[in-house]
Amino acid sequence: MTPRRIAFVGPTLPPHQRPRGCFEYRPPVRHGDLFDLCLRSGDQVLVIDGVYQHFAPIRHKEILAQLARGVHVAGTASLGALRAAELAGFGMQGLGHVYGEARAGRLSADADVAVLHTDDSAGARRLTEAMVCVRHALGELLQAGELDPGQAARLEQAAARLHFTERSATGLRHVAGADRDAMQLLLDHLKRHGDIKTRDARDALDTLAARPVPAPAPAPGTAEVWTSSYGREGDFEHRPLKPGSAVGARLALACLQLFAVDYPERHRAYALRLAAATTGRTGPAGRLLGAAGFAPATRPYARLARGTEATAHWTADERLLARTFRLPPGRLVYQDLPAEAVAGSTLDELEQRCLKLLLPPAAHPLPTTQRHTVLRQLWQADCDHDYRLCALERGFRDTEEAARLAGAFDLALIARLLRAPAAAR
User: Fold this and answer.
1) Measured between alpha carbons, how far is 346 from 276 in angstroms, rounded to an integer?
2) Can you tell me the distance from the alpha carbon of 128 to that of 111, in angstroms, rounded to the nearest whole number?
């Protein structure tokens, strides 16, 4: 299979400046994008631009997860250069002047490379100048003798006083005061020669395109790779149910959690198996809870141990275990699709079931309040507390997680089925 080559780029290199060739261009990277791509060993990713502030930025653990799979990840010019400098010791390749500045410690803040810009549909136009570009252009003008050291220092200080969203040509001229003509010289230089971020991005694309994709590095041993619970969750959220499947593994599990009538039984079996493996104890749930540090359930009908329609025949300890079970270090309930969840079905059968229940592509999900209403009815929860218990005993962290995942499914169809007479279902 031919390795994929993907570049995440935005205003640093607008569409009309991007070289045609082997790279597939994507918008500025954000948290989850690398997991979304389902990358394979040997694929290549170049991070140029990335979002932050209004969206979750690309996390270091997400990049490390790809490196551990044998994906070649490089960074340059903007947020990519910063991440490459931070992860150079872990195998991420850095390219260009901005990367060198970051690696040397002279550049460390996201705001130094940030600009205000339009999206690709509007040409990915830069509306402001990045501070790293201002500093580099001042250095070039100083070296060429077109500015004296005093002017260069004053212009840098003036530009640094502006927030990155205010560092437009108008804003820079305004803040320059008596050095307005010198600031115009700087702006003309940037327009004529291009900023250093753009030069770095173009050079990185040309450099990588001219080289074969590097052979994947051997994946580090499991003892050398530590994955956070957020990384494991992100991987699970974006992993296909099986190679080439249009259904994600997490959505397939959610389909079972939400709609399988006997799912609480499956979740109890899963929790008992893993709790026994964690504590080294077997036998009744009470012993497992004690080994895990839980006090004995002295009141069988305490609020968290109280029975629901699906768990009336369980012991109080079993309800407590199933509803409080978490994987180490204590955040996730699931990070994969376990055998207990599938319970005898094949992955092909599960895939077909999901495809029937998923929301049609053009349809809009129900509002969150209506999702809660349908789930209450589906799980026969008569009050808020019972609804919460039902979500917990189906392996959700809370009702909000259940409603979020339910948004991917055709709940209007489910609601119609619930209203239909039994004979007609």
Assistant:
1) 26
2) 12
Residue that is written with structure tokens 């502006």 in the block: 162
**Residue-level pLDDT at 398:** 94
* Residues 111, 219 contacting (CB under 8 angstroms): no
Give 287-301 pLDDT, tens digit per residue.
666 655 555 555 545
Q: Can you list the pairs that 313-320 forms with residues at least 24 positions away whose Cβ atoms lie under 8 Å?
A: 314/268, 315/284, 315/285, 315/286, 317/284, 317/285, 317/286, 317/289, 318/268, 318/272, 318/285, 319/389, 319/393, 320/285, 320/289, 320/294
First to last CA, the chain: 45
Q: 């948004």: which residue's tokens?
A: 407
Phi-psi category of residue 334: left, alpha or beta, with phi > 0 → left and psi -120 to 50 → alpha: beta
Amino acid at 320: L
DSSP string for 200-232: HHHHHHHHHHHSPPPPPPPPPPTTT----HHHH
Mean pLDDT of 4-11: 94
The answer to whether the peptide bond before residue 329 is cis (omega within 30 degrees of 0) is yes
pTM over 0.90: no
Taking only the tens place, the pLDDT of each residue in 205-250 is: 999 998 876 666 554 444 455 567 777 887 888 888 988 888 999 9
